[in-house]
Each structure stands twice: as structure tokens, then as C-alpha cells.
Structure to design on (324 residues):
């Protein structure tokens, strides 16, 4: 199991970060997106090489309206 | 008149109005409000992508129009606020953060103990930290002491539009602060923004007062004018208050004497 944006889910073997981001419509060039795994930000330059491991807690965020 | 620039962490701004981006009837009204206000800084939030609903945010709308100040709105722990700030830095390529650490969802009052802790951590991590804080001179001093680039005391609770509930505190904070003071939260109408500037604030941050007004574009223009008027009045130096009348017309040469 992994947790993505607070929701627990199953994951296929070999799932990597780009594939997971793709589910959310996020590509390598998407602007205003950031990712953290287990409380640490994964810089965009390292998205491609980041594998997903069982138990990972992943946060995928974007820029929204705010005060 | 010489240009009256306002600087935070070395970055100069002409406008002393910061505008929030939330709650407008639609995007066009927001864009028109931003233009009418003259604001050069806008606040944005960082939120989870909806895994089913796509990742569109508002970045494309604002990135070429204003200096972006991401916030940690809604965070209730140091850990969440720090991670949100780090995510904002990655998403927006900025080290600036409006640090909000909310102690209570009903009052939305800052948790000052956690706020100072988070501010110190973020300063150490290289952030330019602008903390939303209580209107308490000691809290503001502690935030400046840990390296915040400005302090942002509240005029009244977020979204209330009650104006500046304790103008004496805001004036005292402005008089004592080693860093710029930005009044954040509580502004309801233009006179509140003008008063903040008259009390000595360096800038005013507001959102709901514009976005939820009947005519946001017109209110945005009013806020822009109010901040300019208040700043000019502050620089001009108001007359002392007195309790007895004093004639302004000459008293000599009055007919019928």
C-alpha cells in the first residue's frame, strides 16, 4: 500500500513517480506542481528516477487561489 | 514627489497593497480587480492535486502579472507548515512564504508558539518569511529576532471585515518594528486600509474585502487609492488632536467688530 494525497491505495510493482503523476494529469513540464515523498520534497529534476516503494506517503500539490 | 519605494528582503515595490486571489466571482473579475488595485504582490495557496480531477491551478493566470507570495494557510503544525513552504518553493521557484500557522479553525488565530518555531526553521532553510501573526508587539519582535523579513499582524480575524480592532497595538508595533509591518486580515473597506497606513504600516494585505464586495473591481480600485492616501497622510504628518475648537480663518479684521 502507498498513500497518495492522504488516500491509501494499492500500487503495481515497478510504479514510478512519473507514472503516478501521469494519473493526475501532471507531465514533466507541468508548471506549479510540487511533490513530496515521506515528508521530503522531490525536486522536479529527480522525478524521472524516483521509484515508489511500499509504504510511501506521497503528496502532490499545485498552486491555487489563496489569501 | 520622490518615488516612495517599499522593500522587503531587498526587493522593491511601488504599490503597498498585497492582494489575495481567492473568492472572486470568476477569473476575469479577479484579473480586472488586480489591475484596478495596482497591487504588485498576490498571495496563492498550495493544495493537493485532485487525482481524478486534473492538476490545473492558477499559476498561468498570475505568474506574469504579479510577484507571487505563496501561503501556508490552514496549516496547524510546524511540520505541515514547513513542508508546505518547501513544496511552495519547489512549485513556484520562490523562497518567499507567507507563514500561517493556525491554532484553531474557528478563530483562525495564529498559534504564536508554533509560529515562531516554524519561522526560525524556515529562515534557517533560506526562506524569506512573512508571518501572519497576532497584533502583539512582543510576538512581532520575536518573529523579527528569528529573522523574518517582515511581520504581518492581523487587524481583526481573517474574513471578518471588522477593520483594525486595536489600532494602538498596530501603531506600537509599527513604531518598534525592525522589519516592515504589513497589516494582514480584518480589512473590511477602504478606510480600514487607509488607517493601517496612517498608523505606520508599510503595506496592507487583503483579500475578502475585495473579492466578496458587491463590485470587486471598484473596491479594488478603492483599496489602491486608500493605501496611497493613507501612506501620504502618514508621511505628511497629521495634526495633533485637540479637544477644543480653534478657528482656521484669521480672527483679525472681522467685520462688525
Amino acid at each position: 500500500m502507498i498513500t497518495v494525497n492522504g488516500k491509501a491505495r494499492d500500487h503495481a510493482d515497478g510504479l514510478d513517480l512519473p507514472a503516478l503523476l501521469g494519473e493526475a494529469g501532471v507531465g514533466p513540464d507541468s508548471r506549479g506542481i510540487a511533490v513530496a515523498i515521506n515528508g521530503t520534497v522531490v525536486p522536479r529534476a529527480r522525478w524521472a528516477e524516483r521509484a515508489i516503494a511500499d509504504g510511501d506517503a506521497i503528496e502532490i500539490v499545485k498552486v491555487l487561489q489563496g489569501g | 514627489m520622490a518615488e516612495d519605494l517599499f522593500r522587503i528582503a531587498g526587493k522593491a515595490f511601488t504599490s503597498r497593497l498585497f492582494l489575495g486571489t481567492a473568492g472572486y466571482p470568476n477569473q476575469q473579475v479577479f484579473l480586472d480587480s488586480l489591475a484596478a488595485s495596482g497591487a504588485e504582490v498576490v498571495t496563492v495557496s498550495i493544495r493537493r492535486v485532485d487525482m481524478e480531477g486534473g492538476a490545473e491551478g492558477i499559476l498561468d493566470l498570475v505568474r506574469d502579472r504579479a510577484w507571487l507570495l505563496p501561503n501556508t494557510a490552514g496549516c496547524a503544525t510546524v511540520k505541515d507548515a514547513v513542508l508546505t513552504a518547501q513544496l511552495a518553493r519547489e512549485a513556484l521557484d520562490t523562497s518567499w512564504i507567507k507563514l500561517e500557522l493556525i491554532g484553531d479553525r474557528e478563530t483562525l488565530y495564529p498559534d504564536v508558539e508554533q509560529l515562531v518555531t516554524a519561522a526560525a526553521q524556515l529562515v534557517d532553510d533560506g526562506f524569506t518569511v512573512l508571518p501572519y501573526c497576532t497584533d502583539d508587539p512582543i510576538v512581532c519582535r520575536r518573529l523579527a529576532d528569528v529573522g523574518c523579513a517582515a511581520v504581518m499582524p492581523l487587524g481583526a480575524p481573517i474574513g471578518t471585515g471588522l477593520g483594525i480592532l486595536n489600532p494602538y497595538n498596530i501603531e506600537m508595533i509599527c513604531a518598534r518594528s525592525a522589519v516592515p509591518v504589513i497589516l494582514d486580515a480584518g480589512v473590511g473597506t477602504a478606510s480600514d486600509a487607509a488607517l493601517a497606513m496612517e498608523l505606520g504600516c508599510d503595506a496592507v494585505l487583503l483579500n475578502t474585502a475585495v473579492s466578496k464586495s458587491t463590485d470587486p473591481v471598484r473596491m479594488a480600485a478603492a483599496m489602491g487609492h486608500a493605501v496611497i492616501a493613507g501612506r501620504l497622510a502618514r508621511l505628511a504628518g497629521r495634526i495633533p488632536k485637540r479637544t477644543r475648537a480653534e478657528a482656521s480663518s484669521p480672527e483679525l479684521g472681522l467685520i462688525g467688530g
